[in-house]
Amino acid sequence: MNLLGDMELAKIIVVTSGKGGVGKTTSSAAIGTGIALKGHKTVIIDFDVGLRNLDLIMGCERRVVYDFVNVINKEATLSQTLIKDKRTKNLFILPASQTRDKDALTIEGVQEVLEELSKEFDYIICDSPAGIEKGAQMALYFADAAIVVTNPEVSSVRDSDRILGILQSKSKRAEDGKAPIEEHLLLTRYHPGRVASGEMLSVSDVEDILAIPLLGVIPESEAVLKASNQGTPVILDTESEAGLAYMDAVDRLMGEERPLRFLEIQKKGFIKRLLGG
Amino acid sequence: MGIFDYFKSKSAPSSASVAKDRLQIIVAHERSKRHQPDYLPQMQQEIIDVIRKYVNIGSEDVQIQLDNTDDCSVLELNVTLPEQN
């Protein structure tokens, strides 16, 4: 795959948000799976030390033997620790540790693991913990690109702006004076009906405030909970709007043009719209 | 635009537009503070303490702002003194 061999390094993408519960892990699982489906060797790393959840969303919780911290502490090798996804080719998961030791991850340790993964993988997806503390900063420090997961809701938008500030000042790229981290806005839990009735911030409202390029809009969908119940990334549910919207986002991430969809309210709203409701 | 929009415009703005306005203000405010040096809050407090030795002012009577232009930074200090009786 890599004609240049080890010279070509993996692209490191952090999925972050500041606020919790906006869909970071759901998005990491979906986007990581989508990239792997496109034939790129991909690993998703769970950075949420103490609150491991990516394994559940990916449906591999019973196959976790070793974890990220074991690798950093040299208690296990990467190949012993990486979990190969059973459904999707080219896809691997590196689970977080359940230790309560907040300092289990070190910059040097993370760097070493990323460098080793970089030799073998095309894409490394870092699923960030919530917050703006050390754990979140560790997840974004080595990133080349960031997907900022945001809900159309005041606290989420504000926290996304704070995390953008951190991406621009506390990342390795910022410290080394290199090209800044590519920023992508992923708007999740979007409800076109509520936007139309003026109860929810619209895509363009959020774009105006955060002023970063839009990667995709994922509509609020029952398929997301159903997928997490079953431990399947929602992107594999090609019947669902959320799954298709994630696939569009992955296509855009790979540089393809995809029009936005699922932003209109259902047809039954036509009369209502005519009357300005 | 529906015919009911005419009536709607007279009532309160939608909650989404209130949200947008509030966010724009707070985000602009927080962005302006983002590039402040860490010592600024403490310096502000010490300046207030010095002025208080001579004049009775509250901490909200002192506005400190640091503006960065291309190659120089301007520290703007704005003190509102109480009316003299």
Automatic annotation (TrEMBL), chain A:
One of its GO terms (biological process) is negative regulation of cell division. Residues 10-164 form the AAA domain. GO terms for cellular component: cytoplasmic side of plasma membrane; cytosol. CDD domains: MinD. Gene3D superfamilies: P-loop containing nucleotide triphosphate hydrolases (3.40.50.300). InterPro entries: AAA_dom (IPR025669), MinD (IPR010223), MinD_FleN (IPR025501), P-loop_NTPase (IPR027417), ParA/MinD_ATPase (IPR050625). ATP binds at residues 19-26. Pfam families: AAA_31. Keywords: ATP-binding, Cell cycle, Cell division, Nucleotide-binding, Septation. It comes from the Bacteria. One of its GO terms (molecular function) is ATP binding. The keyword Iron does not apply. ATPase required for the correct placement of the division site. Cell division inhibitors MinC and MinD act in concert to form an inhibitor capable of blocking formation of the polar Z ring septums. Rapidly oscillates between the poles of the cell to destabilize FtsZ filaments that have formed before they mature into polar Z rings. Interacts with MinC and FtsZ. Belongs to the ParA family. MinD subfamily. This is Septum site-determining protein MinD. The lineage of its organism: Bacteria, Pseudomonadati, Pseudomonadota, Gammaproteobacteria, Oceanospirillales.
TrEMBL record, chain B:
Pfam families: MinE (PF03776). The keyword Zinc does not apply. Transmembrane segments: none annotated. It comes from Marinomonas alcarazii. Belongs to the MinE family. It comes from the Bacteria. Keywords: Cell cycle, Cell division. InterPro entries: MinE, MinE_sf. The gene is minE. Prevents the cell division inhibition by proteins MinC and MinD at internal division sites while permitting inhibition at polar sites. This ensures cell division at the proper site by restricting the formation of a division septum at the midpoint of the long axis of the cell. This is Cell division topological specificity factor. GO terms for biological process: cell division; regulation of division septum assembly. One of its GO terms (molecular function) is identical protein binding. The keyword Cell division applies.
